[in-house]
Amino acid sequence: MLSMRLLEPITINGMEMQNRVVLTAMVTRLSGADGFVNENIRERYLRFARGEPGLIVVEAMGVHAAKSGPLLRLSDDKFIPGLRDLAKEVHDISPSKIVPQIIHFLKIARSGWRQRVRDLTKEDIRLIIVAYGDAAHRARVAGFDGVELHMAHAYTLSSFLSLRNKRPDEYGASLENRMRLMGEVIARCREKVGEDFPIGVRFDGEECIKNGYTVEDSKELALRMAMLGVNYISISAGGKFEDAIKKEGEPLYPYTGYSGDRCMPSATYPAGDNVYLAEGIKGYINSKGYTTPVITTGKIPTPDFAESILQAGKADLIGMARALLADPDWVKKAKKGRADTIIRCVYGNVCKNLDENFKTVFCTLWPRGKIQAPTSSDDVAPEWPNGGRLEARPEAGRILLSWDEATDNEEIYGYEIFRSRNDEPFDHHTAVRSVTRKFADTRVVGGDRYSYYVKAYDLAGNRSPATQTVVVDFPIGVPLPVGEPLPEIRCGESSPDDEE
Amino acid sequence: MLSMRLLEPITINGMEMQNRVVLTAMVTRLSGADGFVNENIRERYLRFARGEPGLIVVEAMGVHAAKSGPLLRLSDDKFIPGLRDLAKEVHDISPSKIVPQIIHFLKIARSGWRQRVRDLTKEDIRLIIVAYGDAAHRARVAGFDGVELHMAHAYTLSSFLSLRNKRPDEYGASLENRMRLMGEVIARCREKVGEDFPIGVRFDGEECIKNGYTVEDSKELALRMAMLGVNYISISAGGKFEDAIKKEGEPLYPYTGYSGDRCMPSATYPAGDNVYLAEGIKGYINSKGYTTPVITTGKIPTPDFAESILQAGKADLIGMARALLADPDWVKKAKKGRADTIIRCVYGNVCKNLDENFKTVFCTLWPRGKIQAPTSSDDVAPEWPNGGRLEARPEAGRILLSWDEATDNEEIYGYEIFRSRNDEPFDHHTAVRSVTRKFADTRVVGGDRYSYYVKAYDLAGNRSPATQTVVVDFPIGVPLPVGEPLPEIRCGESSPDDEE
Question: For the whole model, what pTM was predicted?
């Protein structure tokens, strides 16, 4: 076991986590609309548990019975037995702790209408508070290790926290009023679960919408949560209705607009693009004397990268969803010092797209047709029958790679592409599924030299030897000015016609 | 004169700037649709010049003759005389250097239709390159000190750079192809203006739209610009069509959506919210051996804050538009060591809203009815006849302030509100115009103590003495859990009816 802060235990209000990795809540669309734990849900979370993250946050469960698509529920005692079995099974097979995320959402219709914060009566609000408290209590009764209150994204509590909440009464318009429902829900849940049961909150560090709040407000929101005795604070971003893209015949779905991109940053974003939010919030509450652990999330690909965040003091815990979907054994492999066998998320957001299209969420890297991640304890690495015969050629502003099939005693799972630019060290560039043995690199810059090699990996993540390295001097699209001819341009009329 | 890097000279390809402050291009809507310099334009820029920023970038001028609203033009030699007079007058009265920003834009119609990158033929593209080169040449002929190529926001060059540019030919889809037109325009302009004339580029460090590029790409774009011999790189953000909000009967206008907020961060954003873009870009090009100066912009309120950015090596130059609109003498006052007399922008974005509504852009802090900033060399500070009689009371989640009128030998210009939280040092909180003698502070947090005082200021920015300090213990909206009663909630039915 390596000496990493990431792999050190931490105790949160009595909940002993073995390491600092949190599987954050992620839509699976594996449940039915009935709200009960089913076999697919059970399999998904047991698979995660076998990978031994410090904490598993189970996907959002409704605190109320309002109509929705597939969604787990904690809105009635009848849901407790199924959840109790799930929590018990996780505890039986894994040191992972497990908490449910509990959610209230406002009504939406396929017509495009949606209920707003301003539409709620005081009685509606009272029922939300009561429902949260009761659901939190059921989480305890069901044997979970704590409960996470969903106050992020497009849902009720987040909509009250929003800078766009202009309710004219004591629940809106000013910062203090926007925090009121959050405070009442937290206080109610604490009353119902007792002092010795962990309560976490997940909320947006930044709304990432026009006229939304920024870290200026989220620092204050987090400080209030800390003052109210919340035991961890999990920072998300965006995922709002306000910029969601309407799809004909479907209810408006958050995560489909820019704020959805910011919630789940794709390959085009820098790694750890949202860490600044946790950093700002943690720095602020620490400066006020609160040490409530802060979870950062958003494209944190490797144990080394995660460790650098913790070492820099930017967050206390590392949350990830897509990286653990791609490889539920991420933590276990890190603990063994075998991060090199992690199946790395490529942040292509196929999972996000499945969710947006109301389909069962799986990882595109998984073997075709599977709705659960594979498991393998095989330790025989794939081989190249003929060295892989990697080829690379520039074409149309891209570099096109192709290679031969690798072989494995078990099954070739995918191919990982490594790239070096101008003879700098090689980086993991991306990966493709085993059915694909080609790749077009569109992020190449003219005038630079690119070197590539490919490794095949099997279901356990064992990597083959590298193919031979191929080198491409990629031509520049525009001549550089010094000592180079300028593009030939005929000097003509400088003004196109005035027309519209 | 204080010893600040901000106030040190810098020479950019022979252009000797007296200090590191750049007035970045800003829409004024003072020009006519004819494209000529008129008296209002002349007054606006001479007023800026008297404040002595290192560099004045004049608002965008069309390189072509396509129809638009009010817009200066450099699309024909006939525009040269007016611009030559403007440049000469600026040079006569000020050490400020002055360059025009030159722009090409695609066609838009009130119907909502807009021309896309993919609609352009190769001949259209060739004409854009030619028009840019000719306009850059006219900038030199007109006596400007350089020229800035507009490659930011919603305009043609930016649309080619965009990650959403999927043109299937050599001008789109891959990073290298997206950079092609930029490179051809820069090379052409250099050919036309010669080696010894400064060429700057302004472009987006991040598009801030769904599927837009991030700093991962803008680092490469900036590197290419540096390699192509661009003399400064000015970093903006957002301001795109893709998320603009359509207004009935008006052409779609960028800056109206979230990306517009990111372009001109309002009071709800942290100061210097976009500095990370310049920092990332500067760090990257410097690491590749290029020292091309990088300009950062976006809510940089004070000389001290600007200086901290330079001292930290995050940028080479400080760009500002709104802060200099609020007080064109910002630099002059900093040079005198009298930053305390700067009329501070409150980032309320009234100017941004005027632009969005196609109205003449002025600063809301200016005396009512004026379309130019006032000038005064008065040095007598305002007085409070009766101490100001500042009052503050909490109400409806806010703290309401009110005070009496101040007097001045000249004219009371506005009132500046200072705030301390929990006995921390007082900060400038905001300012209001002289017709308003009240303020509602909606950003107060329950449980905290807020102290306020107010100063009146005159047209020259002389501050009155402070009013007496008033203190408010602001009540918390939700009881804290420890030793406090919980809100009374009747335990009722936990699930609202299933309905939609």
Answer: 0.93
